[in-house]
Amino acid sequence: MEGNPRDPYLLNHTAIFETKTDDCLAFSLYDDVFFFMDDNYIVFKLTRNENNRLLNVECELTMKEIQKLDYQPKGIKDVILKENYSV
Fold first, then answer.
1. The whole model's pTM is what?
2. Chain mean position to CA 41
3. How far apart are the C-alpha atoms of 44 and 36, rounded to whole Å?
4. Mind listing the pLDDT tens digit for each residue in 7-31?
5. Residue 70, helix vs strand vs coil
6. At 23, is the secondary structure helix, strand, or coil?
7. Exposure of 2 by Cβ count < 10 A (0-12 exposed, 13-18 middle, 19+ buried)?
8. What is the C-alpha to C-alpha distance for residues 45 and 59, in angstroms, rounded to an integer?
9. Strand, helix or coil at 63?
10. Mean of the pLDDT values across residues 65-82?
11. How far apart are CA 7 and CA 16, in angstroms?
12. Do residues 37 and 45 touch, judged by C-beta distance below 8 A?
């Protein structure tokens, strides 16, 4: 969701990306590119559409079974603050 920090009502926020998953195993941000891992260990690389601010899936990567054994999810930061947005 994206919203105006001065308008706390969820009704006035805009959904910029939707996915059907029970858990988010990882979420990170690097140089204005978002990375999201769902509960099936699929990593989505998301970039922002300049025209309507929605997030587009640029690519999907699936972890191999051997990599899943080594991966330990960590806590996700509550807030990520950048110059243009907060998550």
1. 0.69
2. 14
3. 5
4. 777 777 788 888 888 888 888 888 8
5. helix
6. coil
7. middle
8. 5
9. coil
10. 69
11. 17
12. no
